[in-house]
């Protein structure tokens, strides 16, 4: 279909909705099985909230910089196994300890379960052996990127572990996306307005009154004091407008922001078309920014 980046080839057969309410349980089980098979070979810790954290360490005793990286899945599914290769690369290439935390999913565990699980993982990482607590970054993909943005806000507001840098890859930031006029569904891949609305509704089902910024970072009133950010998104992503707006608001408040748009890229492009030159270039720029921020 025209309008997508030519590096991606034919995208007509890519799904417009990665998961549906009726298939959610099966999809979670498949990811859990994959996580069990791969996770047996990965160091694991447990946070104060009883959540498992996959840990990847570089060579040497440290202290090393560190990255808390949150997996995607629309706040309703996911597993650290999807970030396994990226975590190994960051540990080896940048010399950082990488922590991939698990967290609770909506609708069974709505806000604030996910962000509190992430905060407990950040506290664990800041106190972990071999980690320099002054050089910690938070980041994530999709829903994980949204949680990372919320985590930077929560750590600032609580005076918690210092976050030096935030790296937000196609982050899910704005619950208001579910009430805005939807883009043409034919331009969507992997994540569309229907599943986005269902996911946000489940995540926020216990929120009465105004939605807080630690649930939907786009509700942030004052960005002052947040760490510098690298933010990236494709122009064919459902989240494109909200991500661009968030990057602009941070920059307008004086927060250093490195914003990257990928023309014609759909949600999940860096994973679904990871061998495409444009995807490789995007991930390389992301890792270079992280290395510069932490080292």
TrEMBL record:
One Pfam family hit: Abhydrolase_3
Alpha/beta hydrolase fold-3 domain residues: 67-270
Domain of life: Bacteria
GO molecular function, one term: hydrolase activity
SUPFAM superfamilies per record: alpha/beta-Hydrolases
Gene3D superfamilies listed in its UniProt record: alpha/beta hydrolase (3.40.50.1820)
Protein name (Swiss-Prot/TrEMBL): Possible esterase LipW
